[in-house]
Queue: 2 jobs
Job 1
Amino acid sequence: METVTVKRKRGSGNITPSGYIRYKTGVRFQHRRVWERENGSVPDGMMVHHLDGDKMNNVISNLMLVDALTHKRLHGECELRNGEWWKPCTKCKVFKLVDSEFYKKKTKITSWCKDCCKEYDRSKRIAK
Ligand SMILES: [Zn+2]
Ligand SMILES: [Zn+2]
């Protein structure tokens, strides 16, 4: 096994009894290191995504650079239909158009559709 020395902020990794540094995030970010070895550092706000969805499959051909929002979508059961993103609301389970039926935040989209969010707000107001 090759030894990779990575500079990290203190406290993000720990030393195993045998002297290896084990990162808490080591498995998650292994793919990032693979990608960076080939392409240079990952630009700010971009993510390295596993094309086949297998997070342990860290071969370069399985890795793709995507922006954070697209990445969220790829992992959020979203579907691209005719150039528009659809995703199921986790509350009412209905597939809805992401751009108009969900609230958008900076790097993510609400998991509930607008209707369910409004419904929830209403019920909260009544409860008070
Ligand atoms: Zn991914
Ligand atoms: Zn809903």
Job 2
Amino acid sequence: MMEYSLDSGASVSDNSDSIEMQETEDMSDDPFCNPEKPVRVTFEEITSAAYKIRSGIKNTPCEKSHISQLTGMNIYLKKDFLQHTGSFKERGARYALLMLNEQERRNGIIAASLGNHAQAVCYHGYKLGIPVTVVMPLIAPIMKIQKCREYKANVIIEGKDMDEAKKTAYKLSKEKNLTYINGYDHPHIIAGQGTIGLEILEQVSDIDAVVVPTGGGGLLAGVSVAVKMLNPQIKIIGVESERCASYSKAMSNGSPLFTPIEGTLADGLAVPEVGYNAWETSKNLLDKLVVVKEEMIALAILRFIENEKCVVEGAGACGLAAILAGQLDEFKGKRVVLILSGGNIDTTILGRCLERGLAADGRLVKCRVTVSDRPGGISELCKIFGSIGVSIKDIIHERAWVASDVFSVEVIVVCETRDYTHSVELRNLLRSKYKKFEFENFPIESTLVATNKDLFSDDLDP
Ligand SMILES: Cc1ncc(COP(=O)(O)O)c(C=O)c1O
């Protein structure tokens, strides 16, 4: 392990001539992210970053949330999705750009990103007059790609995932003499992300825990150093999606390990291997790591929209997902800060998230009922739904593959209910009227910690 210092200053462009290109690009010679010599970012670097970026970054609000009563905790939301490009990534990006020397600024930089780091370097590069190239994988959300183009950056769409995009970016950095800036592991990026921790501690007193969405680990690393230095009693909780659990893989392995990732609502966290500097910096400061299920992320996005009037992307909603799933129950009655790290979500994906969230919440249900095919059979079924105020969204009749008598029809109904209890009422009513019916994925009550009515009770703390 090597302590990193701000003037250690090796640059990708300095050694580009001496490096042989390979079929599969070897990134172990990135001078800032060397697995053999991981660096631990220090508190002093974070305070230095805070000073340098202060004129270009918003000090976003960290406010008590309406969700407090719903969760039984005093929840504070650090709203970093309110940064200009919609994510905290601007902090590290601006700091890394400001730390380039004159030659590097002229040559320009290159980065690989699923979107938020790309948008951040494109925007701040544009503001600071530094040429920026970004390589985004094919799976990057369209809205994020579009935004990068608006900031006049050179946008290359290549690679099936982040791993491939990174390799392309690194290869180009050497060919074109550009400085490669890793979005979660470059020490300047980690230091920049840590500034969010400094702000949180100035904004909220007596914090018990800070919950940090975790992908490559840069945010977690920076925030843990800042928070633990100022108050070692505060617990640091990392959260990642079950579909890209690379930090938990690193924990069980004892060091970062490649983890295949699957499509996730938390696309910002889809990094297959935790950064080595991020790991070295955070591994002894982290108190707990939570892996959340996709449906809870969808539910958290829904809760933010309905209760906070905030559009938060999947990655940013993971902290609340963990709480809704009961994975942080030890903090009931305590003061917990959730970092809402980003708000960039494609509108089409948002629509799908909300539907999944409603399904996870027991408010959108699908059932199959076999009814009489005689005149009035289907209309009677519809009346039953209407009699208890359930609204039918979609209805399909199936005759050809019904196994029972020819005078029966199977009706598939998708409907909206008020809440889980209302769905149970519907199920009981159908049970009393029909012999053959079933629900698809009827929600399990234990996953639903509270219903909306609880929101109208008094806050926990005055
Ligand atoms: C919105 C959002 N939250 C959290 C993260 C995780 O940050 P890190 O990769 O530094 O762990 C990212 C990463 O891109 C992100 O975009």
